[in-house]
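Researcher: Following up on the earlier apo prediction. This time include the ligand. It's NAP, with the SMILES given after the sequence.
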Amino acid sequence: MKIGIVGGTGDIGEGMAMRLAPLYDVIVGSRDEVKAQHSCECNISTLKDCGASCCSLAGATNQEAVSCADVVILAIPFKNVVGTLEGLDCFEDKIVISPVNPMEKRDHFVFVPPAEGSAALLIKRLLPKETRICSAFNTIAANKWKALDEELTYSVPVCGDDDEAKREVMAIVNKISKLQAFDAGPLAVSSMVEALTPLLLNIARYNKMRDVGIQFR
Ligand SMILES: NC(=O)c1ccc[n+]([C@@H]2O[C@H](COP(=O)([O-])OP(=O)(O)OC[C@H]3O[C@@H](n4cnc5c(N)ncnc54)[C@H](OP(=O)(O)O)[C@@H]3O)[C@@H](O)[C@H]2O)c1
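Model: Understood. Below is the ligand-bound prediction.
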C-alpha cells in the first residue's frame, strides 16, 4: 500500500513518515519537491540510526503524493486546507485521512470549527464525492510521533462514513507501534474528536504537562 502525506515535511508529517516508512511505501509531499526530498534524507538517516533495516520513503510534490497514493494523509494546518485542496486533484479513488484540528490559541486553546462543523466535514465538501474521508490521528502530538525510541500507547478514534475505508484506516493505525484504533462512528462525529486536541493542550498547559494523549479503557 502506498501512503502519501500532503505537508509531510511538517511537525506531524515527518514523524508520521518515519513511523509509517518501515510498514508501507510512503511518499512525502510538499509544495517544494526539494524540501520533501531533503526531509526524506533526514528521516532515512534517523531511521538508520535507530536500527530500522528497511524503509520506503520518497520526497515529491504534494500532487505526486496524492496521485501515487492509495491513502492520503492531509498533514497541513487547518488554515491552509482550502488553498491546498483547491490546487490538487486525482482524489477520486483515494482514502483521505484528516488529522486536522481547527483551533486557535486565545487566552486558552479554543476549538474553532468551520461552518461545516469540523475540518473533516469541510474536507469532505471540498473533495470529489467518490473520495472516502476518515478522520484519525487527531490527538497524537508531533513530538511523540518523532520519539522513535518510545512506543505510541495511545487510543486513536477513527471517524468515517464508508465502513470499508474506516476498516482500512483502523488497520493502518493498529500496525503503528502500540496505537489502538477505535471506531468513533460517522464523519459527523469528527467535530468531537477534533475538539479533544484543544482540551489536551489546555490540560497540558494548566497542569504543566507535555504532549498529553488519550487512552480509552
Ligand atoms: N503538531 C501536532 O502536534 C499535531 C497533532 C495532531 C494533529 N495535528 C494536525 O496536523 C496538521 C499538521 O500540523 P503540523 O503541526 O504538522 O503543521 P505544520 O508543521 O505547521 O505544517 C505542516 C506542513 O504544511 C505545509 N504548509 C505550511 N504552510 C502552508 C501553506 N500556506 N499552504 C500549503 N501548505 C502549507 C508545510 O509543508 P511544505 O512547506 O513542505 O509545503 C508544512 O511543513 C494540522 O492540521 C494539525 O491540527 C498536529
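Model: The chain has a mean pLDDT of 97.
Researcher: Noted. I'll compare it with the apo version next.
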